[in-house]
Amino acid sequence: MKHLIRSGLALLIALAATAAPAAPDDARQACVFDPVGADGFVYDLFRDYAVQAREWGYDLDIRAYTDEAVAANDLKAGKCDMAVLSGVRTRQFVKFAGSLDMAGGLQRYADLRKAIGAMSGPKAAPLMRANGYEVAGVVPLGKVFLFARDRAHLASLDKLAGKRIAILEYDRASRLITEEAGASPVPASIASLGPLFNNGSADLTYAPAIAYAPLELGQGVRPDGGMADFVLAMLSGQIVIHRDRFDADFGARSRAWVFDTLFDTTLARARKAENALDDDLWVAVSEQQTTQYRAMFRRVREQLWREEWYSHRMQRLLKKIRCAGDAGLAECSQESEGGTVY
After folding, report:
1. Is 74:80 a contact under the CB 8 Å cutoff?
2. pTM for the structure as a whole
3. Domain check: are 111 and 134 in the same one?
4. Of 98, 327, 123, residue with least CA distance to 235
5. Which of 1, 61, 151, 276 is most solvent-facing, going by the fewest CB within 10 Å?
6. 109, exposed or middle or buried, with CB in 10 Å at 0-12, 13-18, 19+?
7. Domain extent for 32
8. What is the pLDDT of residue 26?
9. Domains in the chain, number
10. What is the pLDDT of residues 112-136, one digit of tens each?
């Protein structure tokens, strides 16, 4: 009889454990930066990721942040188990991954696909981890363009001299490029770039097309301004996690899924935003200007190579991708950023 009672109790305990809700250890706090908040497309995209995370055994509690600095600081403080940040901001956590958004790094989406594909593969896994953090996914958020309140400022590189350019205060590359062009940097956050530009405190600023409406850049661009048809950089969104709060293989599995499932969806949104901009906003950049811009960016990247601001591995990777796409680039036969490619 006692044996039957013990067996019955054991069965009841097993059934109770099976029916119990997920253990607290399976719940994770996800802090998502989106300038628009919970109504933004980055936040909306992350909901799809959260659904997949449940299949991996994690229940993500998603919190929207409109201030990226706060999201990054909460990740550092351990308040977030994971965070979605821009690549520029991610550099402080995982230098290799965050360096993807470097100035003049890539200018074509086909090349960006190659770079993110390489980052998402198993060979890059050790480089996607640093200091207890790991980047568990990368998506493209679009090409970054230069916007001006007066389109005449975009006529040549010389026209930028003496102008005020609103830049991200924590991005050294932006400051160096602004100073290289003879302009004056106006430090800003992502949230304040738009207001500084729109109220005339800055003559120019930069942003991807997906930020044009959220930052209300049309207020500063209209009626006399425009945007240069030259890609300054590629902006990415990156999922950064505390490694010790997830399974050992979570990062690799997540990176592969994000690339296979979300890359094209996100890229389509970026392209749609670019195509939605009025044709009269675009200011054509001559071949001579393009050559000058590229040379300026190359000088700045070489300085940052010496300073080790960017990951040398990423700088070398992007140079190889650029030269594979256009072997005629002057840099391909130059010793910059780790040596010649050809």
Report:
1. yes
2. 0.90
3. yes
4. 98
5. 1
6. middle
7. 23-141+234-276
8. 82
9. 2
10. 999 999 999 999 999 999 999 999 9
